[in-house]
Write a structure and sequence with these properties.
The chain is about 10% helix and about 20% strand. It contains three helices and nine strands. The chain has helices at about 10-30, 95-100, 150, and strands spanning about 70, 130, 140-145, 155-160, 175-180, 185-190, 210-220, 220-230, 240-245. The two termini are about 30 Å apart.
Length: about 280
């Protein structure tokens, strides 16, 4: 369990701030000196033990074991941070205009994820997520990624060799098929809607988006995610972004975290949206 903030006698304020405090604790559990610090300290620096550099564990059949609780592995502020040094996003002019219209600080509050909608792929949050494989001798037919963020969302990855359907209803997480290539889990996803933003900058995409993630457990405490992004409706060419996730602290678990669609950060109770400043 991670630390929780208890505010006695001011229930409505506690409810409106729980997302802010929870984000702090999910990143690292405690701030300097083992305390949370100010409750408005978004992005507060925290201390954690170094990630374990022991060899990656394996399942009984020899497959690398991705099970466990992880933090990171995708963009938050800007997807461009995952590019190689010197590279820039190959945005088409119309996509660049849309990004500029959305971006900070102009219309940042329009980010669907700030209004409790799913974050899409490959975006992440300060909240942890969990890979769920199976431990049996049988080859898995499914693999799941459980997210604490937003509305207890999850991704379902089909591991039974099926192809993508020829017709798909666009969804927030798309349709994912997976396979192992040596020690890398490769997740191929299509069928996205165009609603989620790649990051807080408002980087857009279209329903033509196709992602290929390569998740590699570098060692016991580190996951590397190399994501190839292809979308001829928003980008002039495919490109690759690389992200690192680290193992969550010992004893940490997914916590119940619900955020209802169009929740206005306590507006119904008279509290302003902190992202509207």
């Amino acid at each position: 369990m991670r630390a929780r903030l208890v505010v006695t006698g001011v229930v409505t304020i506690a409810l409106s701030l729980v997302g802010v405090v929870h984000a702090q604790t999910a990143v690292g559990g405690a701030g300097r000196g083992g305390t949370l610090g100010p409750i408005d300290a978004l992005g507060q620096e925290v201390r954690r033990a170094p990630a374990s550099s022991a060899p990656s564990p394996r399942l009984p059949d020899g497959t690398v074991d991705l099970n466990g609780l992880w933090i990171g592995g995708g963009p938050v502020v800007s997807i461009a941070q995952g590019l190689k040094p010197g590279e820039t996003l190959p945005l088409l002019p119309i996509a660049a205009q849309l990004k500029d219209l959305r971006g900070r600080p102009k219309n940042e509050v329009d980010d669907p994820h700030l209004w409790c909608m799913p974050m899409g792929v490959p975006r992440t949050t300060p909240y942890p997520f969990r890979f769920v494989q199976n431990y049996t001798h049988r080859a898995p037919t499914h693999l799941f990624i459980l997210f604490e963020a937003t509305i207890h969302t999850y991704r379902q990855i089909f591991m039974d060799g099926r192809a993508h359907p020829t017709e798909l209803d666009p969804t927030w997480f798309g349709h994912s098929v997976g396979r192992f290539e040596k020690d890398a889990l490769v997740i191929d996803t299509v069928g996205f809607n165009d609603k989620f933003w790649f990051d807080r900058q408002g980087t857009p995409h279209t329903e033509q988006l196709h992602t290929v993630e390569r998740w590699t457990r570098v060692n016991e405490g580190t996951l590397r995610n190399d994501v190839t992004i292809e979308d001829p409706g928003a980008f002039s060419r495919p490109f690759v972004t690389t992200w690192t996730a680290r193992q969550a602290g010992a004893g940490d678990e997914l916590m119940e975290n619900f955020c209802q669609e169009n929740n206005q950060y306590g507006a119904a109770g008279g509290y302003a949206n902190p992202f509207g400043k």
